[in-house]
Amino acid sequence: MVRHPDTPVSGRAAVLRRLARWCLAPWPAPPVTLRRGPLRPGVFRSRLRSTRMTSQLGVALGVAFGICFGTGLLSHLIQHPPGWFWWPARPVGLYRFTQGLHVATGLAAIPLLGAKLWSVYPRLFSWPPVRSIAHAAERASLGLLVAAALFLLVSGVLNISRWYAPMPFFFTAGHYWVAWLAVGGLLVHIGVHLPAVRAALTRPTGEPRQDGLNRRALLGGVAAASGLITLSTVGQTIRPLAGLAVLAPRHPDVGPQGLPVNRTAAGAGVRAAALDPAYRLRVTGPDRSVSLDLAALDRLPQYTAELPIACVEGWSATGTWTGVRLGDLVALVGADPRHSSAWVESLQVGGRYRACTVPPEHVRDPLTLIALRLGGEPLHLDHGYPARLIAPNRPGVLQTKWLSRIIVSGTP
Amino acid sequence: MKTRTGLIVGGCLLMAYAVVGALTDTDVAPGGVLLFLAAVLVGHDVAWMAAVLAVGVALTRVPPLYRPTIRTAVLTAAAVTVVGLPLALGFGRAADNASVLPLPYGRNLAAVLLVVAATTLLVCVVRRRQAVRNPKDPPSGVR
SS3 of A321, please? Predict the structure, then answer.
């Protein structure tokens, strides 16, 4: 008969203690003969690396990733709103700000991530490679965190460069779920290293004066790199800096009628339908439906609004739009604009963004227009001729172009 | 300890949420995402870091007086190139949309790198003059 060597345990706490002991139990070290190449001691000799610098870079990177995650999640919720989510129509440029911040922060984080990974690179070759089950799990989660952080920044740069071939996945969905992976890995990483980070940031380091100067010089270099990237790109959304934006993927003035375009009429396959003289905009409400040609739309009261197109890719530009208030069209078909939502459809036959919902807070906003003109001229075909939605505080992908139908749901 | 346990447990739950979410999202190709995760990790840890370490070794030959300045310049140039190169290569340009990548990015990237080089040269000249005026001051960047 074989007896269990451990004393019997009872209760959840005892089970957890045993589990913890099992996870932390040291594994035998591998043979020293395997310790070759970068695994040898003293291979990485730079005195620039220090726990203090790694911690400082980590805090800055944590803030940057926190901003990117918060603004990115917000953008996702606006585009795919769950029942509990509410997004206001004002301030007009709030989404422009949050998404501009998302992309600018991600770009500025590139040198930060590079420096952080350089500062901890020798730990990749620490000996023994695995000390226990807990250590193996921590290293695995760290590997996932590094891969996820690189994934987010590299895919983000490729996306704003509109270079999709190297990405074997749908960017939006991949970027979104890997962001959750990165944030989870980041929390685990902070939890594991919190005492070391606290110690490095709060206690006197005792580092030689020269090491302190060099650490500050390197951190200054990282800040300079982040600053230069920001300065050369952020003008794609901050208009006064457009002249400096020599590496911005968009220029806010370049495009038909002085405004950039994301999807052209030819690309959307709507050119013929949009130019068809028989074009009608059908508006369907709870009481009645109307079918309006361009002349009929022109005869309705016209309003002008200064509103930005704020793209998920981080650029934005303001246009002067003129057209019919969506609220007026909603009232025309017998619904109350204060309590109605609208489903707007494009002439596009397919595509992810061919239709969208306009919630009541946007329907009742006087700035929400079915625009017919941009800068006083009829809309350019690529800007949505004959009619498009333009509403305050919404992502560009939800400003549906080449409208064919509006379905109003709400109270009469 | 409670804070650390909360962070680790919360982090694990978020990672599990990410995996389940990605596997159940019909828009996600899990194989493609995994391939890209592995590619960027290996690309960074093997190819990119080898280049960075080689540059680091080369920097040890730079006189200590100029080393921090040159290091900052190299770091800045590398970071700007990561952002500018995909634009300069121009694979994202669209024949029917002139507003996409509308600038001459190759020329602009070269101009930014030249500005970095010129600024670096200027700082090195200033440092040299300061060192000549105050020969007793130790140069920063001694490794």
Answer: strand
A72 and A50 assigned to the same domain: yes
CATH number at residue A309: 3.90.420.10
pLDDT bucket at B143, cuts 50 / 70 / 90 = very low
Instruction: For A124-182, give the DSSP string.
Output: GG-SSS--SHHHHHHHHHHHHHHHHHHHHHHHHHHHHTT--TT--S-HHHHHHHHHHHH
Tens of pLDDT, residues B33-44: 999 999 999 999
Set of chain A residues whose Cβ sits within 8 Å of the Cβ of B8: 187-188, 191-192
* Amino acid sitting at position A336: D
Whether A215 and A207 have beta carbons less than 8 Å apart is answered as yes
A20 belongs to a structural domain: no
Q: Please give the pLDDT value at position A411.
A: 62
| Shared-domain flag, residues A183 and A278 | no
- Is residue B86 within 8 angstroms of chain A, CB to CB? yes
> Distance (Å) from the C-alpha of residue B121 to the closest C-alpha of chain A?
15
CA–CA min distance B54, chain A (Å): 12
Q: What pLDDT score does A205 carry?
A: 63
Would you put residue A255 in left (φ > 0), alpha (ψ -120 to 50) or beta? left
Question: Are residues A181 and B103, on separate chains, in Cβ contact within 8 Å?
Answer: no
Domain count, chain A: 2
Hey, is the C-beta of B110 within 8 angstroms of any chain A C-beta? Answer: no
- Residue B119 reports pLDDT greater than 90: yes
State the pTM of this model.
0.94
pLDDT given for residue A2 in this prediction? 46
| Residue A39 resides in a domain | no
**Res. A348 pLDDT band, cuts 50 70 90:** very high
d(CA A233, CA A240): 12
Other Cβ atoms within 10 Å of A61 Cβ, number: 18
Interface of B with A in 41-60 (CB under 8 A): 41, 44-45, 49, 52-53, 56
Q: What value does the mean pLDDT of chain A take?
A: 94
In a domain, A32, yes or no: no
Name the closest residue on chain B to residue A180, using Cα atoms. B18
Count CB pairs under 8 A between chains A and B: 250
Given an 8 Å threshold on Cβ–Cβ distance, is B79 in contact with A220? Answer: no
B97/A210 touch (CB, cutoff 8 Å), yes or no: no
**Cis ω on the peptide bond leading into residue A128 (within 30° of 0)?**
yes
When pLDDT is averaged across residues A247-275 and rounded to a whole number, the result is 96
Q: Which of A57, A169, A261 has the most B C-beta neighbours within 10 Å, making it the best mutation to test the interface with B?
A: A169
Residue B90 DSSP class = T
Domain ranges in chain B are: 62-143
Same domain (yes/no): A283, A381? yes
Partners of A80 on chain B (C-beta within 8 Å) are none
Range of the domain at A88: 46-244
- pLDDT of B139: 56
A110 interaction partners in chain B (CB closer than 8 Å): 79, 82-83
Residue A131 within a domain: yes
| Higher-confidence position of A92 and A209 | A92
Single out the residue in A244, A267, A294 at which a domain terminates: A244
